Amino acid sequence: MLTNIPNVKLGIIAVSRDCFPIALSTQRRKDIVSKYGDDIYECQITVENELDMLKAVEDVKKAECNALVVFLGNFGPETPETLIAKNFDGPCMFVAAAEGFSDAEKDMINGRGDAYCGMLNASYNLGMRHLDAYIPEYPVGTADDIAKMIKDFVPVARAVIGVKNLKIITFGPRPQDFFACNAPIKGLYEIGVEIEENSELDLLVSYRKHKNDPRIPEVCADMAKEMGEGKYYPELNERMAQFELTLLDWAEEHKGSSQFVAFADKCWPAFPETFGFEPCYVNSRLASRGIPVSCEVDIYGALSEYIGICVSADTVTLLDINNSVPQFIYDEDIKGKYNYSLTDTFMGFHCGNTPECKLCSDRAVKYQLIQHRLLEPEGSEPDFTRGTLEADLAASDITFYRLQCDSQGVLRSYIAEGEILDVRTRSFGGIGVFAIPEMGRFYRHVLVQKGYPHHGAVAFSHVGKYLFEVFKFLGVGDIAYNQPKSLPYPTENPFA
Q1: Are the CB atoms for 389 and 354 separated by under 8 Å?
Q2: Residues 264 and 147 occupy one common structural domain
Q3: Short-list 66, 56, 57, 63, CA closest to 9
Q4: Using CA of residue 320, residue 321, residue 327, residue 328, what is the dihedral sign?
Q5: Residue 113: predicted pLDDT
Q6: Residue 177: partners with Cβ closer than 8 Å, 6 or more residues away
Q7: Which of 476, 375, 469, 473 lies closest to 85 in space, CA to CA?
Q8: Whole-model pTM above 0.90?
Q9: Which one, of 492, 414, 417, lies nearest residue 447 by Cα?
């Protein structure tokens, strides 16, 4: 159950230019609410002037609305309607009525609203005031059309509200040779995210204080139930439960003025030897609740995960864009079965932080093979390198994406939709065979060309259109995607 994302409470305010019949806006607003259903608060004040605007904004605030639809039922008054967005503390959507809004509307003299024209004035005025607003791809429609637009606005609003009320809590510096996950915090402040940076020692002190916590047996029992017998190390559960409670308590005690939290933790090389286990399984459990815990202190990875959780209302994961699919696997399991070339495919991998619900049924808590090689005596049985949640990822639609602040402090992003194939990886870790159309070109001319790190966030559905709107709303100018062959990248060699 996701407990760390906003609950969107929508309101709708209709506006009317005083030289047009106010009934156009009032009745059309009622029609939208009737089509949309009960999950929207209908403000009864139709805004014609600035005093109306103040009353209407006060009304939706009293109703505890945190997202707002501003509806131009006719041409609309451009100053009062844009001041709604200025005075309301939350994301606003602007939409306008099409002529013939309902089947009963046939009068094109007294019944013409000119909202198509009014939408231009509204958008111009929003720009003059440097106000952000969500405007759909085609923001003019009937009651049915606008009800659908509002439903598309909800995941966008949820993500924007979440980001504006998010604190990212970090422990430790990035591991050596993982500087690609650089995190200039300037970009966080630009979009309203708070950050609290801590030492690994702070985490260790808090962990030790949770020894013998009376809640540990209950968490251990939940872990055992989740994994099933033979799928975990019973002697590790108490340590991992202690760590889970440490993170949950830290989140509650340190969120401060923020409402939501995400973590970016240093998970190697010192962590397993000091704490006695790998944190991956605990990280997966928190992600299942909507609290992402990114690996290797990847601050923008944690932020990306959180945005995906808000947009999809589902758990997400963070994976390395890790290795190519070998020719023999492609020939045996992909060629002729799926409509992808070899370079459309790759493997996404991490040690074991993906929520168990997104893995195949043979998932189990295991040990980190690479860390075992590095940290424990050769030939020994795994000890403190245990704690990863491993299996192939289950077949699913996916969106692979990331929001990143580059070394110059500029926010940029990418989004690519695809799928996890029902193909065995024959490998270790939490890993899957991914397929994204034109991935090879996207890899070279976006991921490599623009200097993105190896981590990407994965939502387990196609949510690209919502992520695009969220990034646009947050002011991200560079939103890259996997372009078709017919649309070359600026750096793509036309003679190759």
Answers
A1: yes
A2: no
A3: 66
A4: positive
A5: 75
A6: none
A7: 473
A8: yes
A9: 414
pLDDT of residue 57: 98
The token duo for 317 is 């994961």
Q: What is the pLDDT of residues 289-315, one digit of tens each?
A: 999 999 899 999 999 999 999 999 999
- Under 8 Å between Cβ of 77 and 71: no
Q: Is residue 2 part of a domain?
A: no
pLDDT interval class at 177 (50, 70, 90):
confident
Angle at 243 between CA 239 and CA 245, to 5 degrees: 120
Domain boundary among 144, 162, 180: 162
Q: Look up tokens 């089509």; give the residue.
A: 35
Q: Report the alpha-carbon distance of residue 421 to residue 364 in Å, rounded.
A: 20
Please, what is the average pLDDT of the chain? 94
Task: Please tell me the distance from the alpha carbon of residue 143 to that of residue 146, in angstroms, as a whole number.
Answer: 5
Summarize the confidence of residues 118-136 as an average pLDDT: 95
Q: Which residues contact 232 (CB under 8 A, 6 or more apart)?
A: 223, 224, 281, 364, 365
User: Are 146 and 169 in the same domain?
Assistant: no
* Residue 178, pLDDT above cutoff 80: no
Residue 308, domain extent: 165-481
CA dist 84 and 99 (Å) reads 24
For residue range 447-494, what is the model confidence (pLDDT) as tens digits?
Answer: 999 999 999 999 999 999 999 999 999 999 999 999 999 999 999 998
Place of tokens 């451009």: 78
Which amino acid does the sequence have at 73? G
Angle at 94 between CA 92 and CA 96, to 5 degrees: 155
Residues 256, 260: Cα–Cα separation, whole Å: 10
- Distance from C-alpha of 474 to C-alpha of 27, rounded to nearest angstrom: 33
157 and 173 assigned to the same domain: no
- Mean local confidence (pLDDT), 82-93: 97
What pLDDT score was predicted for residue 406?
A: 86
The position carrying tokens 């709708």 is 12
* CATH number of the domain encompassing residue 87: 3.40.50.10940
Which strand (E) or helix (H) includes residue 12?
Answer: strand 10-15
Which pLDDT tens digit goes with each residue over 135-145?
999 999 999 99
**CA atoms of 264 and 345, how far apart (whole Å):** 28
Q: What share of the chain is helix, strand, coil (3-state, %, to 5)?
A: 40, 20, 40
The answer to whether 286 touches 267, Cβ cutoff 8 Å, is no
Select from 162, 179, 197 the last residue of a domain: 162
What is the domain count for the chain?
2
The answer to whether residue 117 is domain-embedded is: yes
CB 429 within 8 A of CB 412: no
Query: Tokens at residue 443, please?
Result: 């890899």
- Tell me how far apart the alpha carbons of residues 123 and 130 are, in angstroms, rounded to a whole number: 10
Place of tokens 């240093």: 266
Query: Measured between alpha carbons, how far is 208 from 205 in angstroms, rounded to an integer?
Result: 5
